[in-house]
Amino acid sequence: MERDAFLVTGGNSGIGFECARRLAREGWRVAMASRDRAASAQAVARITGETGNDAVCEMGLDLGSTASVRQLAREIAERGLLLRALVCNAGLQTNVLRLSSDGYERTFAVNHLGHFLLVNLLLERLRAQAPARIVVVASGVHDPRITTGARSRLGSGARLSAGAALHLGSHPTRRRALADAGRAEHQPGRQGR
């Protein structure tokens, strides 16, 4: 019988790597999705070697590209992954204004739009494995009170829009999605099981 899987975006380094390693150590099937496939392959080898769990894999994902996000969702369906949880961890911050391949400011595209699309594309798969979880890892990048990165060049309205998108995209929609997936809970900034 196939094991339930966790999908961790940005799982090849930092918090995402530690999350993937811990899940693998506990016996879960783990798929790490990121842009840098070589770094992900190294992370898979390290986790497999440390944990003995051979059900760890890497998948390609550029959250700044809607085509890449859609491709990952198709690949997950083709592999038949029994998705129990999605950990939206990947993120970036730049101090230069750059646009995604779809024309959006890159930080906003990767940190917000890409994950929002990914959650929506995988929602039915998560519901099928209820109780399922969607975990969103966040940082101060979206905080309009902190002026860092390219946001200062875009003006305060853009900074507020990024913060509002995080909350508008996650609050009512996320609560409904989690309720449907068997876990009706919305606790921004709080960790727990």
Tell me what the structure shows.
The chain has 193 residues and is of the alpha/beta class. It has one domain: Rossmann fold (3-Layer(aba) Sandwich), CATH 3.40.50.720. It is built from six helices and five strands, in the order E-H-E-H-E-H-E-H-E-H-H. The chain has helices at residues 14-25, 37-51, 66-79, 106-128, 151-154, 156-180; strands at residues 5-9, 29-34, 56-60, 83-88, 133-136. Strands 3-2-1-4-5 form a five-stranded parallel beta sheet, sandwiched between helices. Helix 3 (66-79) packs parallel to helix 4 (106-128). The protein starts with a strand and ends in a 13-residue tail after the last helix. Mean pLDDT is 81; it is low at 151-175 and 177-193.
How would you briefly describe this protein structure?
With 193 residues, the chain is an alpha/beta fold. 48% of the residues lie in helices and 13% in strands.
Radius of gyration: 16 Å
CATH class: Alpha Beta
Mean pLDDT: 81
- Read across the widest sheet, the strand sequence of neighbours is 3-2-1-4-5
Strand segment count:
5
Gross morphology is globular
Low-confidence stretches: 151-175, 177-193
Taken in chain order, the helices and strands follow as EHEHEHEHEHH
Instruction: Tell me the strand percentage band.
Output: 5-15%
Please bin the fraction of helical residues. 40-55%
Count of DSSP H/I helices: 6
- CATH superfamily annotation: NAD(P)-binding Rossmann-like Domain
